[in-house]
C-alpha cells in the first residue's frame, strides 16, 4: 500500500508495482523532523575545502559550489554555524539536503532519495554517499550533472570519493582551456581561469535559466541571463600602448595619476566648456562603472565636462539598456574607447555572495553577477575580490559578444579595456 501511495504522489500510476526491482529509484523522501545520522563522512581534503569556504562566507552565508541552471546545482550554507549541503540534479532525479559536521565531516540526512528494497538507514547512507560524490567533483572542478536518471549503486559508505561518473556539465571556461583537476590530497581551490587574457574568438553558447527550483531551497537561486551566443569577428591586434588606439587609455591613466598624487587639474570645468559642448560633444572614452559612491569615473580619472560618456549600474552589469547606450555612443558620438571598471569591495557583489532572499529588482542585478561567483570559486585568494574581477571580465565578454559592438570592434571602431579601481589607494589599473 505504501508503494502505491508513493506512485500516486509521483504521478506514476501507469507503472506496475511489480516492475520495481531491488535498488530501483522510488522517489524523494524527507526525514525531518527526525533527520538520519550516517557514518558517511567527507575526506580530509574535502573537509578542509568546506572549512575554507565557510571562513569566507562567515555566519549565515550562502554560495553555490556548482550550478548549471535552476534544475542542476549544488549549494552550501553556514546558517547558525551549521553547515548545510544541498544537491538538486533534476536530470539524475537526485535531491539531497544534509547537515555536515564541521569537526568530523559526517553527514546527517534531512532529505534524500528512496530506493526499492532499502531501509531508512540504507537510503540515507546511499543519498549521503552520492551527495559527497557531487561535492568531490565540485571541489575538483569536474563535470557534475547528468541528463539521465540516476543508476548508481551503493558503494563504501565511509568514502567520499566518486564511484559513479556523472556526464558533463557546461562550464564557463575559455574554449581552448584544458581541464585541470585538483589532486585528492589538496584542499585548496585552484584557478580554472587563464592568467593572461584570452582574445574573444567565439562566444560560448548560453542558456536561459528557470527562475525557481523544485526543492524550494535555497531561496537564493535565480537565473543568470546570458547574452545570445554568436561568433565574434576576429579582433585586430593592438599596436602597443603608444598606438593611437590606446591614447584614450593613456589619457585616463594620466588623469588617475594626478588624482592619486593630489595634483588634480579639474580640466574642462568652466563656463566656456559648457558653451562649447552645448554646440557639439566629442567625448574621448566611455566608462561603464559601478554605481557605488566611492567610484565616480570623472573624479578618479580627473576629467571634465564632455570628456566621458559615463554609464553606471550596480556591479557595472550590462543589460540591453546599457549595451544600447554603449552602441549609441559608438555609432552617434564616434567614441572609440570603452573602459569597464570594477572596484574593490563592491557592495552588490558582496551582497550576492552572502545569498539569501533579495527584493525582485535587486535580485535582477545579483542574477547577472552570479556567474562570476562560480568562476571565482576556483581561484586562490579573497573570494570577494576575485568575484569583482571575474564579474568585470564577464561584462567585457558580454560586450564583445553583442553583435553590433562585436562588429565595431572588428572594424576598428571600438577598443574595450577591463579595469580595476582600488578604493583604498585611488589607483586604477588594467585588469588582465
List keywords for this structure.
alpha+beta; 2 domains; five-stranded mixed β-sheet; 11 helices
Instruction: Estimate what percentage of residues fall within beta strands.
Output: 15-25%
What's the overall geometry?
Answer: elongated
From the coordinates shown, what is the CATH architecture of the largest domain? 3-Layer(aba) Sandwich
The stretches of 5 or more residues where confidence is low (pLDDT under 50) are: 1-20, 147-214, 219-242
**Helix tally?**
11
Q: Separation of termini?
A: 63 Å
Percent helix: 25-40%
Indicate the mean pLDDT: 77
Class from helix and strand fractions? alpha+beta
CATH homology-level superfamily of the largest domain? Carbonic anhydrase
Amino acid at each position: 500500500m505504501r508503494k502505491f501511495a508513493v506512485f500516486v504522489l509521483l504521478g506514476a500510476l501507469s507503472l506496475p508495482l511489480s516492475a520495481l526491482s531491488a535498488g530501483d529509484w522510488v522517489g524523494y523522501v524527507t526525514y525531518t523532523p527526525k533527520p538520519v545520522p550516517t557514518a558517511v563522512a567527507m575526506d580530509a581534503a574535502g573537509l578542509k575545502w568546506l572549512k575554507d569556504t565557510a571562513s569566507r562566507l562567515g555566519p549565515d552565508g550562502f554560495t553555490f559550489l556548482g550550478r548549471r541552471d535552476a534544475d542542476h546545482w549544488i549549494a552550501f550554507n553556514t546558517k547558525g554555524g551549521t553547515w548545510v549541503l544541498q544537491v538538486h540534479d533534476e536530470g539524475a532525479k537526485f535531491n539531497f539536503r544534509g547537515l555536515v559536521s564541521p569537526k568530523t565531516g559526517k553527514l546527517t540526512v534531512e532529505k534524500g532519495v528512496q530506493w526499492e528494497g532499502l531501509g531508512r538507514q540504507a537510503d540515507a547512507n546511499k543519498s549521503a554517499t552520492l551527495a559527497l560524490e557531487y561535492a568531490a567533483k565540485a571541489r575538483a572542478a569536474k563535470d557534475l550533472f547528468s541528463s539521465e536518471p540516476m543508476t548508481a549503486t551503493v558503494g563504501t559508505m565511509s568514502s567520499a570519493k566518486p564511484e559513479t561518473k556523472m556526464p558533463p556539465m557546461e562550464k564557463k571556461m575559455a574554449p581552448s582551456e584544458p581541464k585541470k583537476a585538483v589532486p585528492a590530497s589538496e584542499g585548496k581551490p585552484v584557478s580554472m581561469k587563464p592568467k593572461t587574457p584570452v582574445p574573444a574568438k567565439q562566444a560560448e553558447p548560453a542558456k536561459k535559466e528557470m527562475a525557481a527550483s523544485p526543492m524550494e531551497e535555497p531561496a537564493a537561486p535565480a537565473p543568470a541571463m546570458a547574452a545570445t551566443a554568436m561568433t565574434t569577428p576576429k579582433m585586430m591586434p593592438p599596436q602597443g600602448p603608444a598606438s593611437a588606439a590606446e591614447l584614450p587609455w593613456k589619457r585616463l591613466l594620466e588623469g588617475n595619476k594626478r588624482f592619486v598624487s593630489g595634483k588634480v587639474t579639474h580640466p574642462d570645468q568652466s563656463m566656456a566648456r559648457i558653451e562649447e559642448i552645448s554646440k557639439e560633444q566629442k567625448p574621448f572614452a566611455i566608462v561603464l562603472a559601478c554605481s557605488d559612491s566611492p567610484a565616480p569615473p570623472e573624479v578618479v580619472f580627473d576629467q571634465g565636462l564632455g570628456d566621458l560618456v559615463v554609464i553606471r549600474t550596480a556591479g557595472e552589469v550590462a543589460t540591453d539598456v546599457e549595451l544600447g547606450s554603449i552602441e549609441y555612443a559608438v555609432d552617434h558620438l564616434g567614441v572609440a574607447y570603452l573602459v569597464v571598471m570594477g572596484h574593490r569591495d563592491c557592495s552588490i557583489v558582496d551582497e550576492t555572495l552572502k545569498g539569501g532572499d533579495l527584493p525582485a529588482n535587486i535580485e535582477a542585478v545579483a542574477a547577472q553577477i552570479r556567474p562570476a561567483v562560480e568562476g571565482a570559486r576556483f581561484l586562490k585568494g579573497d573570494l570577494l575580490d576575485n568575484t569583482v574581477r571575474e564579474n568585470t571580465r564577464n561584462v567585457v565578454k558580454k560586450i564583445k559578444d553583442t553583435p553590433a559592438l562585436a562588429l565595431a570592434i572588428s572594424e576598428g571602431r571600438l577598443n574595450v579595456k577591463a579595469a580595476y579601481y582600488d578604493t583604498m589607494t585611488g589607483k586604477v589599473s588594467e585588469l588582465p
